[in-house]
Known about the structure:
Layout: H1 21-28, E1 32-36, E2 39-42, H2 44-63, E3 67-68, E4 74-76, H3 77-83, H4 85-88, E5 94-97, E6 103-106, H5 111-121, E7 130-139, E8 154-164, H6 167-187, E9 192-196, E10 207-213, E11 219-224, E12 229-232, E13 253-256, H7 263-270, E14 278-284, E15 290-296, H8 303-307, H9 321-328, E16 344-347, H10 348-351, E17 356-359, E18 365-370, E19 380-382, E20 401-415, H11 417-421, E21 425-427, E22 433-435, E23 437-444, H12 445-455, E24 457-458, E25 461-462, E26 473-477, H13 484-499, E27 504-507, H14 513-523, E28 527-531, H15 533-538, E29 540-545, E30 551-555, H16 559-572
Parallel strand pairs: 3-7, 15-16, 16-19, 26-27, 26-28
Antiparallel strand pairs: 1-2, 4-6, 5-6, 7-8, 8-23, 9-10, 10-20, 11-12, 11-20, 13-18, 14-15, 17-18, 20-23, 21-22, 24-25, 28-29, 29-30
The protein binds one RNA strand through strand 8, strand 20, strand 23, helix 12 and helix 14.
Amino acid sequence: MRLSQIPWNTLKETPADAEVVSHQLLLRAGLVRRLTAGIFTWMPFGLKVLRKVEAVVREEMNRAGAVEVLMPAVQPAELWQETGRWDRYGDLLLRIRDRHERDYCFGPTHEEVITEVARRELRSYRQLPVNYYQIQTKFRDEIRPRFGLMRAREFIMKDAYSFHLDQASLETTYQAMAEAYARIFRRLGLRFRSVEADSGEIGGARSQEFHVLAESGEDAIAWCDGDSYAANIEMAAALPPSAPRPDPSAALAKVATPKSRSIDEVAAELKVAPERCVKILVVEGTDGGVVALALRGDHSLNAAKAQRLSQVKTPLTLASPERVTSATGAPTGFVGPVGLRVPLIADHSALAIADFVAGANEAGFHHTGVNWGRDTPVPAAADLRNVVAGDPSPGGGGALAIARGIEVGHIFQLGDKYSRAMNAVVLDEDGKERPTIMGCYGIGVSRIVAAAIEQNHDANGIVWPGPMSPFDVTLLVLNPKNAEAVTAAAESIYVQLSGAGLDVLLDDRDARPGVKFAEADLLGVPHRLVVGDRGVREGLVEYRNRASGAEEKVAIDDVGKFILARLSTAAAA
RNA sequence: CGGGGUGUAGCUCAGCUUGGUAGAGCGCUUGCUUCGGGAGCAAGAGGUCGCAGGUUCGAAUCCUGUCACCCCGACCA
């Protein structure tokens, strides 16, 4: 492409409302433009990136035996009423009414539509298994769209749905999808991890997430190199400490702590480490009362784990300050296990310490030297906390590390939830009707673009992994006005590279060199060639690698081979 | 939805407290000089000050309403 013929505007200043780097750089590099909250236009170069991601996804889905379809974006309410999700899905569902006053929604996902397809098309077990996929625009009316493409309302997703006669067949396809996903992210040149995940609302037996690793990731994932354990922190099990609880050695005492409510304040005032404190969180229970949860002072509550307790109301709700005071006799911050009048469940780690500090159930006072059993009944034990770096891995292979990740893929085993609700059945070998068993597999295609930038950028702009870059190579022409020879050389190199099958961006604009360099860095194409007066006289162009900054001079006649060699070594790596 | 904030030129923002008729930088246009890391000088174009009411001789500025957007909380690819 010749840059002189494409309107391309970059921003020198960071737009005020762009919070995360990917959003800032997408806007600054002119790849996307925001139309309204959570809704974006893909500009020419941004679209090229999106298409490259789609192509890899499509190739790998096809390789894994999936078959592409394209379902409607607009879906009738009736379908959603069949599965009950018209009412349950809530405000995330963008509802539309047509001129006949009929209800529709803009699809946030396609389980209903694909199940409708399946129940019409699939009649015999002989047609199974089948895995349909599409790459399509979805709309979820997020309460708060943010972070640019990372959490847009309108976004592009690859979603696949597989249908099986039995669980064993589902397992096979699920495994194939896990492998396809790993191939996709590897081919895109992204550092990623697959983790065990909570299957959440969609339901079903097994679920795995794929995360692009990046500091700015919204999710925390726990992993261990020693045993290849990896799980979303929501799921990662905290093992009970192996050492038995020490015997009490201190006497129970009540101390005044008028200013201290938080663990940090209490620990500072009493000069004890937070891990020698026990904090109590009071949450709503299932029986209309409240339930107290005990954690070691330095640990944080894991909402997903707490919700799994039968006594705890879902969704997890902290009791209001008034409820806490009336139930325990103390305001929040001073609740403790000694003489506590509400049911108490303690995290394993909180149960494993002796002589600890805790609230005294009286405003302005804490206890020191508290011991389970001696001063309080021994509460029920449970895994309630988030794992922290250094915890033993549930896989037994060593210590856990915590990394941040951006969820870009999620695969589920759905079972027969939708096929039963919508009567998607096939005849089995015995001629009996059986509901199909389903799997579903999503990839956030547009989110991948943002995640790639979050993971790969520097102070000057984007540093695309080669396979996602809008171009293979960018060719900067310096001083074309003053040097016809330079223009001619650039043209010949452009033809040479294009002829070699490379996607080349030729910067033939009448612009100053500084502008071209700065904008090339912003755009982040991995390989840059500069054609200028200096080199052309010697028959040379200058090469620079965007990621490493390494520079090299290359003979004009050899540029095609040179770049191709770089691309193939990058692909092999 | 609850809490906080912002709407002034394409972008980043000043002006608002204390009403007097619109500003800067970047970007854009033209010319000249420049030209190896977002040039300099000069001349320009561009704004119903989010919208609607109100107060006032006079409103970007004060009041009321409204809309949009952004940030903090629970969901998700």
